[in-house]
Design goal:
The complex is a heterodimer of chains A (about 350) and B (about 120).
Chain A: H1 7-15, H2 19-22, H3 29-76, H4 96-110, E1 123-127, H5 133-142, E2 145-150, H6 153-165, E3 172-176, E4 189-195, H7 204-214, E5 215-228, H8 240-253, H9 261-270, E6 274-280, H10 282-285, H11 288-296, H12 299-308, H13 310-317, H14 319-327, E7 331-339
Parallel strand pairs in A: 1-2, 1-4, 2-3, 4-5
Antiparallel strand pairs in A: 5-7, 6-7
Chain B: H1 3-6, E1 23-31, H2 38-44, H3 50-56, H4 70-82, E2 83-91, E3 98-102, E4 105-106
Antiparallel strand pairs in B: 1-2, 2-3, 3-4
Classes of the chains: A alpha/beta (about 350), B alpha+beta (about 120).
Chain lengths: ~350, ~120
């Protein structure tokens, strides 16, 4: 998958007519027109191909999570994100739930949200909500109304069922929807939450645009996501071996092309967001993947994995690649937060 | 699906000027008892698009938060949380495109040509 970070910009470049085409010299008009037609056709085809690619990606993501959600929930509970650990600690499976909750609290703190729940957000959107762990936690913590969206019908259904079972059906509700076309009017939410879903978005510009659109004036936006390392000023792109490693991971986890933390910052700056803060939390999540691998190797969880299906198995086999990526400082676990102006 | 959910969703199909509120197509409406949480209702009230809720249920046409005494609170609670729409769909007010609701979970995914 070679979707660029800013596909819109790339296509605009293809569309721009070359200066000599604008001059109609006799005898070459047909040629010029044909060249322009070819350029336009090529662009239309590229856009079509990209749309088909994105369609296939969305389908892949939905199916991946439809297939693996139950197994994940069995082993890891209702939070589908990394735990926040003390660096260099060895943790056992029983520590993970607390670590996953700590991840949410640390993210809220980093964003500058008050520790006082009465001063917290009243309306939250959980973009890429999984089975609703974050939403239900935030709904309880702030007595807030939370809407979650996911591409996976199985996850949305499960999220609603869990909310009902926990007496939270009024506070937390979940829909099947696309983060690139959020089904909400503008400015609905005072907290926009994206916990480890950004890496699935094929069009980062559109993704960020939607996060900002549905944010109310004065709202906080929190993005926690996997990025690749920031490029050095002299670099145009990642090294070939780096691209190759990320490519392999992309295929297993239904990810489009990666971007860097700085790319997110640039997008937010272009949309006039304020108080943009970022951090590299890779050291705090390092114990996560070895723990996932260890858990997958137990008999109970292995059979669960085999029952889930091929997509989940492929995902499991890609885990060492994630560890490699982190170890080589290629993959970063990033947090990016900001405020929408009043 | 509860009316609270309906009050938060809109149609974002390309070309639609105002996709809110979605029309509701319902086969059956049942009532389920939900414990009244006055604090939650008071918090949620300012977020509610009142006209959309009025049209979807039977409520007074004009409302403000000073009205949130026990009688009105009960009516608000009932409309928002206790009316359950079964086998329903949400309909774009401009294009009449149906968004299906399956077991209370709306599917708002747009098709390729709607984006």
């Amino acid at each position: 998958m070679t979707t660029s970070v800013f596909p819109t910009c790339q296509l605009l470049h293809t569309c721009r007519p070359r200066p000599h085409l604008l001059h109609r010299t006799p005898g070459s008009t047909t040629n010029n027109r044909r060249q322009l037609t070819l350029a336009v056709t090529a662009t239309t085809r590229a856009m079509e191909a990209e749309r088909k690619n994105d369609g296939a990606l969305k389908k892949g993501i939905a199916e991946f999570y439809d297939e693996s959600s139950e197994m994940w929930e069995d082993i890891w509970g209702d939070h589908m994100h990394h735990g926040f650990y003390d660096p260099d600690s060895t943790v056992s499976v029983s520590d993970h739930r607390a670590a996953q909750i700590r991840m949410i609290d640390e993210a809220l703190r980093f964003a500058g949200l008050s520790e006082d729940p009465t001063k917290g957000p009243k309306s939250v959107v959980d973009v890429g909500c999984g089975i609703g762990g974050s939403s239900r936690y935030l709904a309880r913590k702030y007595e807030a109304k939370c809407q979650g969206i996911t591409l996976s019908p199985v996850q949305a259904q499960r999220a609603n069922a869990l909310a009902a079972a926990q007496g939270l059906a009024d506070k937390a509700s979940f829909q099947v929807a696309d983060a690139l076309e959020q089904p909400f009017p503008d400015g609905q939410f005072d907290l926009v939450w994206s916990m480890e879903s950004g890496e699935h978005m094929p069009d980062k510009a559109k993704f960020v645009n939607e996060l900002v659109r549905v944010a109310a004036p004065g709202a906080t936006i929190i993005i926690v996501t996997w990025c690749h390392r920031d490029l050095a000023p002299s670099e145009e792109a990642l090294q070939p071996w780096e691209k190759e490693l990320l490519n392999k991971i992309c295929k297993s986890y239904y990810l489009p092309a990666w971007c860097s933390t700085v790319d997110y910052v640039k997008l937010l700056e272009s949309l006039s967001l304020q108080d943009i803060k970022t951090a590299d939390w890779s050291p705090y999540v390092a114990p996560f993947w070895p723990a996932v691998i260890r858990s997958a190797l137990t008999w109970k969880d292995m059979t669960s994995l085999l029952r889930s299906g091929l997509k989940s198995i492929k995902g499991a086999l890609a885990m060492p690649l994630m560890i490699q990526g982190f170890k080589k400082d290629l993959i970063k676990f990033a947090i990016i937060t900001c405020q929408k102006p009043e | 699906m509860k009316l609270l959910t309906h009050n938060m969703l809109s149609s974002n199909i390309k070309g639609v000027a105002n996709g809110f509120p979605l029309r509701i197509e319902v086969e059956k409406a049942t009532e389920k008892q939900v414990e009244l949480n006055a604090g939650f209702l008071r918090n949620v009230f300012p977020m509610i698009e009142w006209k959309a809720l009025v049209d979807a249920a039977q409520l007074p046409e004009v409302a403000d938060s000073s009205m949130l005494d026990s009688d009105f609170l009960n009516k608000f609670h009932h409309a928002l949380l206790e009316l359950h729409l079964e086998k329903d769909a949400l309909v774009c007010p401009e294009t009449a495109r149906r968004f299906p609701v399956s077991q209370g979970t709306p599917n708002m995914l747009l098709l390729e040509d709607e984006v």
